[in-house]
Amino acid sequence: MVESGTEPVYSQHCKGPLPSFSSCFPHLPGMFIFNRSEIEISTFFLIGIPGMEHAHVWISIPICLIYLIAILGNCAILFFIKTEPSLHEPMYYFLSMLAVSDLGLSLSSLPTMLRIFLFNAPGISPDACFAQEFFIHGFSAMESSVLLIMSFDRFIAICNPLRYTSILTRARVTKIGLAFSFKSVLLILPFPFTLKHLRYCKKTLLSHSYCLHQDVMKLACSDNKVNVIYGLFVAVTGILDLGFIFMSYMMILKAVLNIASQKQRLKVLNTCVSHICAVLIFYVPIFSLAVIYRFAKHSSPVIRILMADVFLLVPPLMNPIVYCVKSKQIRNTVLGKLCQKHS
Predict the structure, then answer these.
(1) Residue 21: pLDDT over 70
(2) Where is the G-protein coupled receptors family 1 profile domain (predicted)?
């Protein structure tokens, strides 16, 4: 209450024909202002590495190098597969799909990562955040599907080599690629729409340097049961992909053990090494992050943030390197192109 005989102290901002109550009385207690917790927020805030904000500019240097190498490496894979006739085979068509999904993951996360570490700008609008999480989850689902397709490719090549080219024709490879890409888009498409229908009015700080569905939905102050259930369904489809990959390799191993010559066994298994590395590079960070969230809830947030960054940075970086090192045809093509340029 303001005592009678005294005038209230007006703010200097209380000017104009329709001044707001809060601008006229900034000194009054919060109870006089309408409940701010019910006002929907307009900006989310991403996070870099807690405690190392002073070094973000320096951290941005290796991050930029990783992105540069990943983008150039996957573009090179696509270029060599397109221009080299000897690489026009089902295995390399699937590899080009893997390169596209890796490029998508890199380009989806690049803007916010650079804004945080290079320009110290963690703010992001909800719509931009929803769009980013759609592309990140979409290309992640696509990569999981491509790894599954590549495991079937290895199974057919090893268990039925005489019919390999007749089974996996170019038309059939194209249809398989389009079907699984369409499946990945449809699977992730509800994410941004379900997030859009939630209300965000209290929390604004996200847990990573980019937007993820499970991270954004935790900020909502309205019921997010639909998001939780559908997010669990999407996670189960990823686990099913890994399960089918495991089954493919069990059948491959069974077929390899029937080969009498040990040298021939090693030669056959060597054709699977690149794909096995790609599977481990993709799934190990995901399961490590899930284990940390489930069983090490009180662990340092820096560990969770670094593991989440590894999930997006390492697969696009390492897959081109692994395939260039382990695939003799790609290695010879790369060396041949380089020698032509120097000659």
Answers:
(1) no
(2) 73-323
